[in-house]
Amino acid sequence: MEPPVTRTPAFPPSIAPLALTGRRPLWSVMIPAYNCTVYLADALRSVLAQDLGADLMQIEVVDDASTDGDVAALVAALGRGRVQYYRQPANVGSLRNFETCLNRSRGHYVHLLHGDDRVAPGYYARMSQLFEQHPEAGAAFSNYASIDEAGHRTYVPAPIDAAGILPNWLVRIAERQQIQYAAIAVRRRVYEELGSFYGTNYGEDWEMWVRIARYHPVAYTPEVLAEYRGHASSISSTKARQGRIIQDLLLVMESIQQHLPDKDRKQVALLSRKFYATLGIGMAYQVLRETQDWPLAQNHIRQALAMSKHPSVYYHMVKFHLKQLLHKLSLHA
């Protein structure tokens, strides 16, 4: 009797190689979706506006048994037969749904575009160009913009580099996450070689991008060609409210260490812990703004301090507690 399949695999799941015979599309745009029906139309329209045709582009929604709407009907209405639809028999969780996406993909380049994100005009043409210019690249990505629930841009990171193969990328991406799913495309053969996502459903992508950088050059363009949507029901927002992000990041950092040369491991770990400890304090402020839940905010602070004892972390922690003290004094004034 086979053991039950876990929602969170402990090791990278295998991605089956495709047969070498027969025609394959250049692109597989795989759209994992779960209870994001309100945003899915936006994602589909952004892809269909750049449709290269069925011979060159597979477009498929992989629905993890959503309960917030009729996803099949939405795909049929917008896709008009152009977009394939697959529904999981039961909810399997994000990691297993990504695994299904990758195994169902047939293209040479795979783009995992979450159902609540979208691409900007020119994404697929520019990524194709990057792969053609740099055949050694295992993956290629662009700069991105964060958007809110209404689709308005709220933040655009500074460019990482000029266009081309990124130098010393393994160490740089190992220090902190700098890529959004919507912005990166990966050669399918790289997923076949390295496997799918595993370990945790927050930060699992960071480990994957490090894993790819360990074995393959990565190409980049500073153009803003993808949009990552933040909203209250996303996994990251949910985990932030639960105070679980730093725990997951610590697991991811531990996994990342295995991909680094011995000489870089200690320094990368110190830099990562400092960066994400500071981010954790920022999350504490965000929790206060959104919920006024001081105990949950304090939990973020405790986890941040457990992550790093750098003086700058203590400085931000003292500022937070002073704010808390002033808040208490104002309540009793």
UniProtKB/TrEMBL annotation:
Residues 28-159 form the Glycosyltransferase 2-like domain. PANTHER family: GLYCOSYLTRANSFERASE (PTHR43685), GLYCOSYLTRANSFERASE TAGX-RELATED (PTHR43685:SF11). This is Glycosyltransferase family 2 protein. It comes from Hymenobacter bucti. It holds the Pfam family Glycos_transf_2. It comes from the Bacteria. Transmembrane segments: none annotated.
